[in-house]
Amino acid sequence: MNDSLNIWWAIAGAGAVTYAARDLGVLLSGRLNTDGVAFRWVAAVAYALLAALIARLIVVPLGPLQATSVPDRLVSAGLALAVYLLSKHNLMLGVATGGAALALLKLAAIG
Questions:
Q1: The dihedral sign for the CA sequence 65, 70, 72, 78
Q2: Start-to-end CA span in the chain (Å)
Q3: Contacts of 90 (CB under 8 A, 6+ apart)
Q4: Which of 12, 33, 90, 99 has its CA 20 to 30 A from that of 59?
């Protein structure tokens, strides 16, 4: 009986900590200066991490992407970027173009 009570206390404590952190974030969000140096630094780090992950997927891919060649990955990424920029930053269109280009290049290499 005591063990089952401890589990419920643990669940309640975890929930309290989770929601306390969220509540604190909501309370402090009104005081954030989105034009400040710290906010710009955090945004820059986020973009840098995203760029590093994309570069790693192109240069050293994992999983099924390993079956494609580096030039095919570079061409499809370049086409995706070009379509993204030419379509006034339409992310969906850029991603779809990159995926379609990679699939077509892979099919062309097989056939």
A1: positive
A2: 67
A3: 83, 84
A4: 90
pLDDT by residue (tens digit) across 3-21? 777 889 999 999 999 999 8
Could you tell me the CA-to-CA distances from 10 to 15, 18, 19, 21, 23 in Å, in that order?
A: 9, 12, 14, 17, 20
Residue whose pair of structure tokens reads 């009104």 in the numeric block: 30
Give the predicted TM-score (pTM) of the model.
0.62
Interacting residues of 94 by C-beta distance below 8 A, sequence separation 6+: 80, 81, 83, 84, 87
67-72: average pLDDT = 91
Collapsing DSSP to helix, strand or coil, 33 comes out as coil
Cα distances (angstroms) measured from residue 20 to each of 11, 12, 14, 16, 25: 14, 12, 10, 6, 9
